[in-house]
Amino acid sequence: MDTLRFKLYLCLALAFFCAGESLSIGVVNWQQGTPQRAGSQTILMWQGYPGAVKYTLTRKEVRSGRLDTWETIAPLYIDRKFDPAQSYDYHIIAYSSDGRPIAVSDTVTLQAERPLKAPVWGGSHQDGGEAFLIWDSDPRAKYHNIFRRQAGGEPKLIASVQQGKYVDKNIIPGLEYVYHLVSVGATGKESPQSDELVFDVELWEGGEARSPATVKYVEVELVIIGPSENAFAEPTDMVVYKDHLYVSDLGSRAITEFDLDGKFIRRFGMMPYGYIGDWGIPWGFDISEDGSLFAITFLKSNKLRFFNSKGQYLNEIEVLKPEMLEDSPIPPQPMDIVFDGTGGYWISENSYAQLIHYNKRGEEMGRVGIPKYIADSEPFRTPTFIARDKSSGDIWIADSLQGKVFRVASDSEIIGYFDKRDEEAGSLFLPKGLAIKEDGDVLVVDGILGSLQSYSPTGILTEVYFSPKLNHLALPRMVSVAIDPKSGQILLASKLSNAIYKLREVIPAQ
Question: Domains plus CATH for the chain?
Fold first, then answer.
């Protein structure tokens, strides 16, 4: 019967297509990448159809023909109940206010998850008090569980890593350890166990113990997408201010404003009528503490532009080259901007790798870092996202290609930096978006691993964020992060899915 119902849905849609112009049946277009697995959730997104007041989403289990149907007003749905071992077909019908079907979608399929192959050891060696392990694995694996036992003992999980290598720093001279691996896929399905690796520890002078970071489990509470008619795509920077979310994106070339329930409110930051010269693409931005001023940086432009709270263009400031490189043919490229709490602002500048401070009149107050193209250039190479700790005034800078996050005091002194490329949870390979938590810790998104972690002001890893029952964050690759100051909820932006994910913390079932 369920199979018959599904066929009737498709026949009804086909009948409306064949009726011709009298019914004006249209096509509902799926968002690129849909459906997408996100741990225990499947996220489905499509482009809103003009005149549609609701949508019927039908899911068919391919093997059994079982049907499930849901109604939704928004052009998205989170399927929280599915079997990873099953394949599913999804289909949409859009309805007008008078109850008529006015558009249908093609059928998209979520394929069953194929079993992972067992990881294969690639080698091992000892360097001092550290055992270095490497292996090859199924490219679909999201992370790998490493188990260790001593002769005659039971294996214990000692680490979960995303890359195919691990350094065991908790080894004792003269002992023999036996390791094995299990890879884990996006939905938590495990691979067969690897072969065992026997490791004899040679004498060394001692080791260092480390405290593990706290694991927080989060799932998607809400998916926010911009209006398709505005070509919203590739969200980049985000700011939450007084119950509203502001997002820059490369598709619509604007700042888009939403409420925190995902409702679209307005767009601004576009080139005003009569403007002479190149405008560029909005990238980084910030909002003054009183909400009266928006400051925006633009890709392919060396201008900083300012807008009032109504979104009206006010004026712009030109970012200049470093004094010793005034004759350079390379134009400055401001990346991100944050207000300093006194009316001035800081920017990260990528072409010459500097952090620049301006007063409220747009006059330079100073620069941090010796610029690129000079022999003793330091310490930045590719500064991108920045964030400001409002309690201390300190500035945090993500130096993406260096894999470092720098901390600079409000008086322009570089306090230090942290990096973490040891392959364990919290590793940083391409740090991107930053956000300061209420306790002063800094949230960091990694653009390669698609991970989210929190560090103390001194650079100690304090928290890692995983999807329930997994040892990774099962979301499309993230680029930036924001925090709702009232609720403490985290929002992540993904260029891959052109969406913003509002997360909630959960306690996974044991």
Answer: 2-110 (2.60.40.10), 120-208 (2.60.40.10), 215-506 (2.120.10.30)
